[in-house]
Amino acid sequence: MQDFEQEINVKGWVRTKRGSKNVAFIALNDGSTIKNLQLVVDLEKIAESELAFMHTGASISATGLLIPSAGSGQSVELTVHSIELLGAADPDEFPLQPKKHSLEFLREKAHLRFRTSTFSAVARLRHAMIFGVHKFFNDRGFYNIHSPIITASDAEGAGEMFQVTTLHLDNLPKNEEGKIDYKQDFFGKSSNLTVSGQLEAELAALALSKVYTFGPTFRAENSNTSRHLAEFWMIEPEVAFNDITDDMDLAEDMLKYLIQYALENCADDLEFLSKRLEEEEKNKKADEKSMELISKLKFVLENPFERITYTEAIDILKNSNHNKKGKFSYPIEVWGADLQSEHERYLVEKHFKRPVILTDYPKEIKAFYMKQNEDGRTVRAMDVLFPGIGEIIGGSQREEVYEKLLNRMNEMHIPMESMWWYLETRKFGTVPHAGFGLGFERLMLFVTGMGNIRDVIPFPRTPLNCEF
Ligand code: 4AD
Ligand code: MG
């Protein structure tokens, strides 16, 4: 790797330039690692005027000898023989100065923020996690399925959908009833961007046994939180012959595998992000600080996730001092209440102090396709809750019995004309099966220690924000 004999050429972007009368030092980065390469320019051999435009942000090409570095902070450096400016960056205009910028400021400069240490580290980790996801499933005999992005079924009820149309909004065709005539729309019916690839993944699982999707999903919910995006990526495995316990085992295995993968493949970036987090939280009180990033990742690896039912969780929450002292914005009073992220985080961060898998939720607060339990009031749902995040995975065993599914669809007014095909799979060779959805950006939040979901996807889509 390191060739100390031959001349090499490097290209990249200048992070900093400093120097004295005789020598100039340029910290160069090409995005392949968090570590800059130090270029050492002997000003007796190369005229200082040649470096005139090589300010922070400029792109350059340099040729020279790689040598072990005498200075601290790097193991090698490049003794420059020749250097060339590729693209200047006017220091009066280039927004990224060699100092700390706030994450909010950098969000406004998303076209340039890859050039910072933080965002290049996040981008590399994101790549590693994408690769890790595919490796995990490929090694276990799963097939990747591309589920459609445009769909005519709003099966999930997971949130408001973005409509897709080629109709002209200022001149909408109407039918005899005076309603919009979707027969004239592109697909001959109303269509949307998908909120999940699950239903199609189920169709594939009922033939290929083990499949997963990894695609973009869209939710037009107006939630301006640090954990919601309007466009996010979801990983959805679906496995024939699996029950809810198998589903939980798969979820726990996958999360642990991915965390291990990050520790093994992204050590330098994690170390950098750990220091970043420490710096960001240096003014917080001790009990408000998060656990050191790498220790936190190892902690999750080494401890089994706590598995409890929704009913047990409600008991814990209802009887907690937190609840009694009125510290929840949504106090827990009755069985059946939907859990807010404050409740999920209480269970994980205060009560169990580790990831928790909640199962057997009331059927009223879950989707129609979840397998109904014998008690008549709960379904075989499972949500994985993580520290600092709340819900990272939502999944379930699916209802595979035709009549039960049909009844539930009728009860919940699921339109058959757009969902007949889903129901039909339960008529022809139905089998028990289960799956889940992992929000990829929520995983990225956990692994990078970043605090806002807008900072773990290159170009976030949130209400009133579709720049870049
Ligand atoms: O719990 P959800 O809505 O489940 C489904 O969509 C199922 N069809 C999954 C399945 O069983 N195949 O979403 C799954 C995960 C959540 O746990 C969360 O991590 C993430 O997707 N998620 C979001 N991430 C970012 N922004 C949003 N607006 C999100 N909504 C859900
Ligand atoms: Mg959910």
What does this structure look like?
The chain is an alpha+beta fold and 468 residues long. It has two domains: 7-98, Beta Barrel (OB fold (Dihydrolipoamide Acetyltransferase, E2P)); 115-160 and 195-455, BirA Bifunctional Protein, domain 2 (2-Layer Sandwich). 30% of the residues lie in helices and 24% in strands. It has twelve helices and 16 strands. It has helices spanning 103-108, 117-139, 198-208, 244-265, 267-280, 293-302, 310-318, 321-324, 341-352, 402-411, 416-424, 440-448, and strands at residues 7-19, 23-29, 37-42, 59-68, 76-87, 143-144, 150-151, 163-164, 191-193, 210-218, 231-240, 306-309, 356-362, 378-386, 390-397, 433-439. The strands form three sheets. The protein has an eight-stranded mixed β-sheet with strand order 6-10-11-16-15-14-13-12, sandwiched between helices. A hairpin with a 7-residue loop joins strand 2 and strand 3. Helix 2 (117-139) crosses helix 4, helix 2 packs across helix 5 (267-280) and helix 4 runs antiparallel to helix 6. The mean pLDDT is 95. The site of 4-amino-1,4-dioxobutan-2-aminium adenosine-5'-monophosphate (4AD) has 22 residues, from strand 11, strand 15, strand 16 and helix 12.
Question: Which helices and strands occur, and which strands form pairs?
Answer:
Layout: E1 7-19, E2 23-29, E3 37-42, E4 59-68, E5 76-87, H1 103-108, H2 117-139, E6 143-144, E7 150-151, E8 163-164, E9 191-193, H3 198-208, E10 210-218, E11 231-240, H4 244-265, H5 267-280, H6 293-302, E12 306-309, H7 310-318, H8 321-324, H9 341-352, E13 356-362, E14 378-386, E15 390-397, H10 402-411, H11 416-424, E16 433-439, H12 440-448
Parallel strand pairs: 3-5, 6-10, 12-13
Antiparallel strand pairs: 1-2, 1-4, 2-3, 4-5, 7-9, 8-9, 10-11, 11-16, 13-14, 14-15, 15-16
Helix pairs in contact: 2-4, 2-5, 4-6
Bound molecules: 4-amino-1,4-dioxobutan-2-aminium adenosine-5'-monophosphate and magnesium ion.
